[in-house]
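Notes, Module 5: Reading structure tokens.

Key idea: the token line is not a picture. It is a compressed description, and you learn to read it the same way you learned to read a sequence, by spotting repeated patterns. We will look at two proteins. The first is printed below with its tokens.
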Amino acid sequence: MSSFPSDWKRVVLGDVLDRIEAGRSFSGEPRQAEPDEWGIIKVSAMTYGTFHEYENKAVPKGTQFSTSAEIRPGDLILSRANTREYVGASVLVGECRPRLLLSDKSLRLHPSSNVDPRWLWYALSAPNSRRYLSNVSTGVKSGMRNISQTSLQAMPLAIPPLGEQRRIVDILEDYLSRLDAASGNCDSNQLKTVGLKRSLWQQVFAVRAEDQQWQVASLLDVARIANGQTPKGLTDRLVSTAQEDCIPFYKVGDMNLSDGRFMSTARFYVRKSDATLLGLHVRTPGTVLLPKRGGAIATNKKRILQAEAAYDLNTMGLEPSERVHAEFLWHWLQGIDLSRLADGSNVPQINAPQIRDLRLPLPPLEIQQEVLVRMDKNLGALNRLNSDLEHVQRKAAALRSALLATAFSGRLTGRASDMDLVGEMAGV
């Protein structure tokens, strides 16, 4: 639709603002401010549509600053620096703690008297606005992007009279509250599926004293523990496309690439001849990979090699003996929180000495196979449920985007037919 209702005016954002106020730049301490301390917000406080006051850094004692940069309820704040996906994200501040300051990566927008701040916030979140802000941002393509105040003020808008703005906001908030409730229920149920999976693992691997077929073995008794390697000169020999006589080379970040049990694709490959030249150890299919450091330790990102491969020094491999099926070992590891074993450094890490004595419940191989059949059936049902919930979340996000697009093209009436139009625009 190229035209708007006759009483709407085409303007740019600068026409409907009294002024834009920028925060200041100074280093905060790498911790959240205490209630009696001043804090300065991080870009993550503005990233996800709701103001997160706890996303702040403590202002060092003795730092000189003006309290005029303090954030107050009702402020409309925009992130002028962020990744391409989130640059220009805005929030309308509700209740918030005192002593929080704007940072140099945030802007406070002061709407003029003929603009409802709620309407402007929703307008900034509409698909056309988000597209514009992303496209005019500058900086490293895959890193932090920035928006100048000049580009921000030049953003095109179509604005209705003040009364119509308020009517649109009331309708929007009615519809959006229902979408938010549906998304909240999905979030809750997705958390429940995680809990059910953990309960399933714990139940399956609980050794019963009366069952003499189950034994308890240390991890070192049933698997060879091997550290990955990143030899000097390897980076120059990696290729992004599988070629003849190549093997996959997995980095710790690749733990997130697959949602299933096996990693069948890789981002990098190395020729076997280069692997031999560099002294890179090639591991056999069935090796269970797990990350050694960072948040991934706690998120159960563990995979089984499907083919011969090598992996980096931030990854550990468990090569099962003939006493244990690789999948049985993988399932058991999924129920273990390895983060509790990590060292206390700034980047927590686990190594072979910390996991070698973990106790693994171990039945005969034929019973292991029975356990795997049962696990596949139960986990398959939970994974299908989780997939359905993810589909609902994507549908809710599409409806939200289409609803905002409808509202800011002048087609939101408040009638039941609105959602038919929104559904058609969202393709659901």
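Here is the second protein, with the sequence above and the tokens below, as before.
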Amino acid sequence: MIRHHPTAEILLDHARGGLHTGESLVVACHLGVCDICRSEVSLCEGVGGVLLERLDPVILSDGARMAMLARLDEERSENTPRRPELPAHMNRYSVPDALRRRHFSFRRWATPGIWFAPVKSAGGKTRRTYLVFAQRGTALPHHWHAGREFTFVLHGSFSDGSGTFKAGDFAETDRHVEHAPAVSRETDCLCLISSASPMLPSGWMARSIQRLLGTPY
């Protein structure tokens, strides 16, 4: 049972296209398994359509129509469903359609029980979007964030000071949150994360491992 959902503000931003690409991907994965949030987004989109119909028409500048059509073609090409072959280590998981259309980079092992894998074309250079895996009974180092971070739980569960998050749940953290997510002892945990900035570990060892990874998470 899904217990943690995006806020109404996040769902509205998603519906109007106001989220960053990586953030939107995390929300889309949650929408794929949550009827409640999917209904709210549909309602927001419907209201937006009504408001657009009530706007007074304006005269477009020269070339505006061609520019709009070109942009639509570009977005259609980006959003065309693709089914790239999943890496072998992902075959055991239920992967949402929104994530299946993405390409995963190679795994980077931080410890024998924790790895990270960047998600390509999902956030550009200014935002980090990636998968993080942790074996059962393990915990990420105590850390905080300089910016906003969205998390979607694909498999297993983890707990921190704000509660327990299981498969299908959505979590949001920001610079006011310090935590050390701990995976349950029952099963491994796999999450999709989109973050505005790298984690800021409090321990020197975690910071050293982070630098060795090449791309800080």
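Summary for the second protein:
- The mean pLDDT is 82.
- The CA atoms of residues 82 and 101 lie 5 Å apart.
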